[in-house]
């Protein structure tokens, strides 16, 4: 059954459109399960009914005409309960409903499973049998697996506009990912195709067919030369049998095979990369289905050849187009900082990526630039999105493809409200962040690049609460040298002097790899990251510490922050290296003062080591993002569990309150530099808990300042006590909204559903 399942999935994924995919699926399922009927009912949210979309075994005239409400009949019952229903005598069930058009009165047995995509019920998949039959566990498991596969196909079809049935909405689709940078945008998709990825080539119509054919032939010719040269290099090192594989490759590339078929597709209206990808995928799917072992193995060869030819085609095809729509939503499998820099800033209104996370360098820069961004959108069908109109919601991690007029109008209003609020708040940004009862709440900024434009905010902030030193490392092609780093750090320290600048030592690992220092791990967030990496590579940390100290000479506003501390010994080892760096520079004639050193509290273990850490550190900084992730055991960058990640979880708030209280007892300054600090409601909670400073991305400053200036410290403290008594994140969020609404500050929060 597993082999059958694999083949059906391949055929469905290889179908050119939704109709073909559905037809293939119902026929293959009926045959595989040796049953009489297989049908698919699609849920239409506009009319709130399940519509029969495809069947084999029922009357074909019923397709598109038979529909039923959720809860109506056995199919409706499956949709209502969102769980499988397995009946040996279906007509005897009290919910059985007879539809004359289907002719289903002849069928006794019934097995139905819901089709669910990201918690949305999309439809129901059903098999039926004329004689009484109890479908066994293997049958049920098979159908559930097919349903899960169909969910992805349907989601892609919605996004690409393939759902053209008259009873369905106009192709609007919703995809969700990880909210990486707040804000909302409406615009047109520009797909950035990754190099040599056959599954991510956009569909484009060629402007010059002969030119496309010509460059295809050139690309194939280059691959033939590469393979010939590779075969000649290996001729004396491999057997004649293995050498014959190179001849097989040459035959596959011959005029009569690959080239001819791709050229045919180009003449039918596909550009060369798209035509190549289609042909290669079709051949691969065919070869993987055949029973002959030798031919099945050739599928990998065909795929490899396709990638090689595509790579040469893409050398001539700029990944970044020459012109961009006025409101460009850049979409790609993975968007690099370099790519971001090639799009005119005035036209770039949003970013969406299949890969990436809220702490990746692209996300960091997007937040600094104020560009709405959603990453980790794993189910996004890239190839057919180019040119699509979309609505991007960076607050809630949503992308609406081909939105309805009503939805677009609603988001236009929300965007206008945000712009108006930003303009209003701008007028008080030079005022102190002081509560009505006289409590001063220092606000600091998170930086990482000059692009942050934080220097212009100098008179509005109390310093830099977090300078991410890894960002310059990420955009380099090697580890920056000491002098190079010293210049970068000096610019930051001088720009903000005399305000303090907290520089975090290199924090890589987890989801922040360096291109020249990759870290491959099965579980990177519990692996080699932060101070664990730099202590294992003291040559890297020493260069960085020396550069920081050198840069701070004469300014004395440097503070050093150690990330991902788990053990007190790690702090001891880092301090020894710092003292050594000071001594070495002194021997070289550079007089550097010992800066204040802080520990980042983001690993739960540090909550229980505060006394020991306080003996060694001058201050604490809470990384609320990672602390939340580790307390809740939720990868915040995994869209499938992103809903479970919530900084307002009662356990997280309780931990934060304890940290503030304990730091007060130990007389150690403590700040927060996570996303919670940049949320107006979160900032009020943190102020009420007793944190000494809040650090955030520059775009978050106006709303946080506005909230602090309108709520007394006493009211914030009361809010903390009320909130800590609540048991669920939902209850906390609702209470915070209610309180801010009472204080007429609800407009400072992100829009709600």
Automatic annotation (TrEMBL):
Q: Name one GO cellular component term.
A: cytoplasm
Q: One short Pfam family name for this protein?
A: PEP-utilizers
InterPro entries per UniProt: GAF, GAF-like_dom_sf, PEP-util_enz_mobile_dom, PEP-utilizing_PTS_enzyme, PEP_util_C, PEP_util_CS, Phosphohistidine_dom_sf, PTS_EI-like
Q: Does the keyword Flavoprotein apply?
A: no
Q: Where is the GAF domain?
A: 17-164
Record's subcellular location: Cytoplasm
Q: What is its main location?
A: cytoplasm
Q: Provide the alphabetized UniProt keywords.
A: Cytoplasm, Kinase, Magnesium, Metal-binding, Phosphotransferase system, Pyruvate, Sugar transport, Transferase, Transport
Catalysed conversion reaction: L-histidyl-[protein] + phosphoenolpyruvate = N(pros)-phospho-L-histidyl-[protein] + pyruvate
| One Gene Ontology MF term | phosphoenolpyruvate-protein phosphotransferase activity
* SUPFAM superfamilies membership: Enzyme I of the PEP:sugar phosphotransferase system HPr-binding (sub)domain (SSF47831), GAF domain-like (SSF55781), Phosphoenolpyruvate/pyruvate domain (SSF51621), Phosphohistidine domain (SSF52009)
Q: Name one GO biological process term.
A: phosphoenolpyruvate-dependent sugar phosphotransferase system
What Enzyme Commission number(s) appear in the record? 2.7.3.9
Q: Does the keyword Thylakoid apply?
A: no
**Cofactor list:** Mg(2+)
> Which family is this protein grouped under?
Belongs to the PEP-utilizing enzyme family.
What is the protein's given name? phosphoenolpyruvate--protein phosphotransferase
